[in-house]
Amino acid sequence: MQVVLIGVGQAGGKITQVLAEFDHEMKFDAVQGAFAVNTAKADLHSLSIDTALIGQDRVKGHGVGGDNELAAEIMQEEASEVMDALDGRISTSAEAVVIVAGLGGGTGSGGAPALARELRRVYSIPVYVLGVLPGRDEGSLYQANAGRSLKTVVRESDATILIDNDAWRTTDETIEEGFEHINQQIAQRVGLLLASGEVVEGVGESVVDSSEIINTLRGGGIACLGYASAEAAPEAGENVNTITSLTRKALLTGMSLPNAVDAEAALLVIAGSPERISRKGVERGRKWIEEETGSLQVRGGDFPLESDRLAALVLLGGVERSQRVQEFMERAREAHEETEKRDPVEEFSNDALEDLF
């Protein structure tokens, strides 16, 4: 799937660079271009991809200090300058634009939905947001920011793929190590998804193409991604149970949004050497996902990849009613009340969490 990546904010820029590097190292050629936008000059210095600094007149290159309303205003005011910087980078061969942002910070949570709105106004291809939710220990401001940003970005994008920071973090890591580990996890999983449908060595029996990713996300709303891998036997017939087991593991324990099982649509991609991929295993995995998610729109296929391992990648679309999302929105609501010092008895529902625009 040919995409252009745009990182917004500190986390967005770092993840965009890691994604672009992974794509280049694997020679997938799915990432046509990578670009980062920020209000903090220092955060752009460490990036080797092309960058743009916005908001200089208002924040002098020092960032927005967690103020996502200010970030949204700056992005809206300077949208034409950002679009000019992107001119020529989004070619006619691009099949989607992916905005990458941490939804808890200031620039990412405020700027991403504003940029998504402008991109959708100008381009006819899908505009997706890869949004990272803050962990439970990242403070009330980040929770409240992410709650407001999530509501806005879901409305302004064609689909929002969510990554929960708590999903792939291990307890023995420092915060810095944790973020680095999560970024690598994101790059591997999202990188494989974006590479699906691209021309690679090896011919599978039923290769996934870009349209199947787009159709899985067509319903909009919130999506999430699961992954699992294991050593595989040399012969396809010996890997039927391996593929079904990996499919279960990817959905039940490897999702970027844990406990998000009910879905409107799903896509199962089995990556590995074509000689090791069992069509019977893929079909069993697809049928199991259909039963587990309750969706009648479950697609499945291969991604030829030279490896002695097999990997299962599960993309779920339309998971906004899942328990995990509801739990997060409740946490964001409580954080919003705390940061705003509102009356605790004031009526406040998840659906009423105010957005940024």
* Individual helix count: 12
Number of strands: 10
Strand content of the residues, in percent? 15-25%
Helix content: 40-55%
Order of helices and strands: EHEHEHHHEHEHEHHEHEHEEH
Q: Provide the CATH topology of the largest domain.
A: Rossmann fold
What can be said about the biggest beta sheet? 10 strands, mixed
Could you characterize the architecture of this molecule?
This protein is an alpha/beta fold and 357 residues long. The protein folds into two domains: 3-195, Tubulin/FtsZ, GTPase domain (Rossmann fold, 3-Layer(aba) Sandwich), CATH 3.40.50; 223-317, 60s Ribosomal Protein L30, Chain: A, CATH 3.30.1330.20. It contains twelve helices and ten strands. A ten-stranded mixed β-sheet has the order 3-2-1-4-5-6-7-10-8-9, sandwiched between helices. Strand 8 (265-272), helix 11 (279-293) and strand 9 (298-304) form a beta-alpha-beta unit. Helix 1 crosses helix 8 and helix 6 runs parallel beside helix 7 (140-156). The longest helix is centred in the middle third of the chain and has 21 residues, at 175-195. Mean pLDDT is 90; it is low at 342-350.
Which labels suit this protein?
2 domains; 12 helices; Rossmann fold; ten-stranded mixed beta sheet; single chain
